[in-house]
Amino acid sequence: MIRALLLSADGHYREGDQHLVAAWREQADNILWLDIQAEINPEIRGLLQSLGCNELAIKDASRTRHPPKVENFDSNSFILFRGISELDDSLTHVPQQLAIWVGRNYLITVHRGTSVSVEQLLERVVPENLLHSPAELALGLLHYASGRYLAKLMAAEERIGELEDQLLGERSNDALKELVAYRTRLRKLRRIFNYHQRMAETIMNDGCPTLGTGEAGSHVRRDLYDRCERLSSLCSLYYELCSDLVEGYISLSSHQLNNTMKILTIITAIFVPITFIAGIYGMNFDNMPELHHEHGYFFVLGTILTVAVAMIALFKRIRWL
């Protein structure tokens, strides 16, 4: 599906499809937003090429997975952004590639399936007269898409705090499994956000004639960078927090296991000599020296008790008990 929105030089909006491209070319002051919600086929490729889109950029946009980036060309700027198709509260992420070309008087967006960010902007363009600046509209689109990531990431913070409390409760195993899952998803998101941060940093520092340079539009570019940088830092923070909680739980479990094994070792060490003495005097030989001793039984019991007390005292002295 191809949708087009044309802002004519006299300030009137027209909605339609790719046929509005011809009307856009009639006057240099016309501004066009062309939204392509489909895979790039030969017909769409030809349309993009006719609008001055670079062939290599079109190839990047046609891929289902490509790292986010920004490239500046003579007539436009190309932005590849990793948007959201699905992102639930557990941070399970289904990405959506969003390709954007920004020219002096046009904006082109290409994506597979419905884009929530594009839809909300399309609803606001006419009432708020946003199409007069394609550069600000494109940066606003990226800003809104990053905000969707930020909302889910902030919601996950509360859940991670709850899991931290559960680690010390009866459902510690379930909490540990969920934390490991969060850590895996945060690692994937951190990679995406690192790309976004570098992309936003390039837009802020370098700029270009179509996205603004110097002081022109700097506040919009700075706002986008701040949001992308916050996403990257928060994601790294939550990832490290999950890792610390998992490692801390494992260390605590190992410490508890070591204490248990130490107690069992002490008990075993105490009973080994006692078992040895009982084994010796449990043998059925007629010529054992103490076998017919009048107080032999009490002597052996005393020896066993003495050995046990001595070993307990020894373990306390070396602070095993």
Summarize the structure in words.
Helices cover 59% and strands 16% of the residues. Helix 5 (134-166) runs parallel beside helix 7 (218-280). The protein folds into two domains: 2-253, Beta Polymerase, domain 2, CATH 3.30.460; 254-317, Up-down Bundle (Methane Monooxygenase Hydroxylase, Chain G, domain 1). The termini are far apart. The mean pLDDT is 85. With 321 residues, it is α+β, with helices and mostly antiparallel strands.
Helix content: 55-70%
Assembly form of the protein? single chain
First-residue to last-residue Cα separation: 76 Å
Secondary-structure class: alpha+beta
Element-by-element helix/strand order: EEHEHHEEEEHHHHH
The CATH superfamily title of the largest domain: CorA soluble domain-like
* CATH architecture label name of the largest domain: 2-Layer Sandwich
Q: What's the story with the biggest beta sheet?
A: 7 strands, mixed
- Main sheet: which strands, in order across? 2-1-3-7-6-5-4
Q: Total number of β-strand segments?
A: 7
Number of domains: 2
Level-1 CATH class name of the largest domain: Alpha Beta
Poorly predicted segments: none
Count of helical stretches: 8
Average pLDDT: 85
β-strand amount? 15-25%
In a few lines, what is going on in this structure?
The protein has 8 helices and 7 strands, in the order ββαβααββββααααα. By secondary structure, it is an alpha+beta fold.
